[in-house]
Amino acid sequence: MRSCIPLVLAVLCGLAWAEDHKESEPFPQPEEETEEALTSNLYLAPTSCQGRCYEAFDKHHQCHCNARCQEFGNCCKDFESLCSDREGFSYSSDAISKEEIQSISEKIYRADTNKAQKEDIVLNRQNRISPSETRDQVDHCPKPLFTYVNEKLFSKPTYAAFINLLNNYQRVTGHGEHFNAQQLAEQDAFLREIMKTAVMKELYSFLQHQNRYGSEQEFVDDLKNMWFGLYSRGKEEGDSSGFEHVFSGEVKKGKVTGFHNWIRFYLQEKEGLVDYYSYILDGPWDSYPDVLAMQFNWDGYYKEVGSAFIGSSPEFEFALYSLCFIARPGKVCQLSLGGYPLAIRTYTWDNSTYGNGKKYIATAYIVSST
Predict the structure, then answer these.
(1) Do 153 and 170 touch, CB atoms closer than 8 A?
(2) 32 within 8 A of 304, measured Cβ to Cβ
(3) What's the Cα-to-Cα distance from 204 to each of 12, 210, 286, rounded to whole Å?
(4) What pLDDT shows up at residue 158?
(5) Residue 200: what are its φ and ψ, rounded to 5°?
(6) Active-site residue list
(7) Which is nearest to 264 in space by CA: 219, 312, 223, 210?
(8) Which residues form the SMB domain (predicted)?
(9) Contact 284, 370 (CB under 8 A)
(10) What is the average per-residue pLDDT within 128-136?
(11) pLDDT (tens digit, 9 = 90+) per residue, 351-360?
């Protein structure tokens, strides 16, 4: 029916930036240097469309990523791979268009009734630094990021089910993950709870209409494989998964990778395990969910740039990341949230597959918002 590829996601708002997903290993490891490299230049590499898709024409740029660059023959060499409007599973007539993705993302945004309200979270952003300072590992913020969180949010079924999953992983790559019966049941419970929400119902309805899934059970089974299926990020077999990487966070080669979730951040900060250092970008939204790109230390390991939604429900993030992976696997995904553009980049795990050659989610993160 379709060839789905597991997803990993990242998202960012404000000016363009992203996380590095390249290493000198046989199989590229998403997100370990991309973030650092791209934040060193807020507008990203002048010869790439990374984070620049469909920007306004600027005569000072060496190459271009605007809607008419193909007409004038001055596109950056990666324009087609990063900015194509009709991609995903095929170039056929049923491919999902940019406009359709933006429309469903707005519906998902409006459907997130479980999100935090303004009074539920008080942030203390403190000091903003420039991208050139992100490698300095200097703590510019003496106080925690979260001044207050209404923890009644965490008693909601999807939040509670999500939190149950966070401590089921060994954060250092190279150590195989082994789930017991209770942990496997917690994965099923989370998927069961999010599928009850309007957010996930909107997403499933859209994807079914797009001929991506024939039944809700097929959709849920695929989500479980793409997010919770284990693959090898280090030397040990089955030491990582999309969920662990994106939401819980990992440590590889002495660096924090993934860790894109505000709930995880708050809980770890509350325990004294996360030390918030600074931020480089803050999203344009004046209500939740918002987006923040920040630097922090996680129990002795540094995160040079970490993007995260703030105040979103677990199902909201899960839905957007899944949408982008399914519609734009391994590419930039142009969304619209509350009238503001947002780009998410997903990466597939090419070293191993599940099912009929489907690939696992490697990472996903926020790329840009203007």
Answers:
(1) no
(2) no
(3) 24, 10, 28
(4) 98
(5) -75, -30
(6) 245, 260, 303
(7) 312
(8) 45-87
(9) no
(10) 93
(11) 777 776 677 7
Token pair, residue 22, equals 């390249």
Report how far residue 325's alpha carbon sits from residue 317's, in angstroms, rounded to the nearest whole number: 12
In tens, the pLDDT along 116-125 reads 999 999 999 9
> By mean pLDDT, which of 83-87, 89-93, 153-157, 359-363 is the weakest?
89-93
Closest by Cα among 270, 194, 251, 196 to 228: 194
pLDDT at 70 exceeding the cut of 80: no
Spatial distance between the Cα atoms of 18 and 42, rounded to a whole number of angstroms = 9
Using omega within 30 degrees of 0 as the cis cutoff, is the peptide bond preceding 142 cis? no
pLDDT at 78: 82
Average pLDDT score over residue span 17-36? 38
> Which pLDDT tens digit goes with each residue over 298-336?
999 999 988 999 999 999 999 999 999 999 988 889 999
With CA atoms as reference, report the closest residue to 278 among 148, 143, 147. 143
Of 60-64, 175-179, 273-277, highest mean pLDDT: 273-277
Q: How many residues does the chain have?
A: 370
Q: Please give the average per-residue pLDDT across 262-269, as a whole number.
A: 98
pLDDT tens, position by position, 158-185: 999 999 999 998 888 878 788 899 999 9
- Three-state secondary structure along the chain? CCCCCCCCEEEECCCCCCCCCCCCCCCCCCCCCHHHHHHCCCCCCCCCCCCCCCCCCCCCCCCECCCCHHHHCCECCCHHHHHCCCECCCCCCCCECHHHHHHHHHHHHHHCCCCCCHHHEEECCCCECCHHHHHHCCCCCCCCCEEEECHHHHHCHHHHHHHHHCCCCCCECCCCCCCCHHHHHHHHHHHHHHCCCHHHHHHHHHHHHCCCCCCHHHHHHHHHHHHHCCECCCCCCCCECHHHHHHHCEEECCEEECCCEHHHHHHHHHCCCEEEEEEEEECCCCCCCEEEEEEEEECCEEEEEEEEEECCCHHHHHHHHHHHHHHCCCCEEEEEECCEEEEEEEEEEEEEEECCCEEEEEEEEEEECC
